[in-house]
Amino acid sequence: MSKESSTGKKLTIKVDKEEKLTIDGTEKKIENLEADFFERLVDKALADEVDFVLESKGIVGNFFQTIQSGTAADSELRKLYEQTLADSKTTDEADSKSSEAQESEPVSEANLESETEVESAPEAEEF
Fold it and tell me: Are strands 11-15 and 50-54 parallel, antiparallel or unpaired?
């Protein structure tokens, strides 16, 4: 799933009774759509950023109906998507707190010695 999918603007997918596909008001041929479009479509649908207007029960209409139902609020995919977002947010917050704690830790001689072990140089032998 692409992070760039969330633009705030809803995408409108319409399949009319004659199986004519329009995307945001522009007529498209399904065979001309690329895999990248479908990946972004699923990402946006999972984020509730797609309005589906499906007037047809034909092949094209059923195809987009499958995407709509597969990304609906009660779908398994949506549940996994939301869990992944929640897990990612929790991990990011934990990483952020860990970084803040390390940055705010006072520097002491003991901390420096444990972080950078200094090997002592061998003493020169006297002849």
Answer: parallel
End-to-end CA distance of the chain: 72
H-type alpha helices, 7-105: 35-46, 59-70, 76-104
At CA 72, angle to CA 2 and CA 74, rounded to 5? 120
**To the nearest whole number, what is the mean pLDDT of the chain?**
82
pLDDT digits (tens, 9 = 90+) for 84-115: 989 988 887 777 777 766 666 655 555 555 55
Q: Which residue has the tokens 């199986």?
A: 19
65-68 own/partner pairs: CB under 8 Å, 24+ apart: 67/41, 67/42
Handedness of CA 25, 27, 31, 34 (dihedral sign): negative
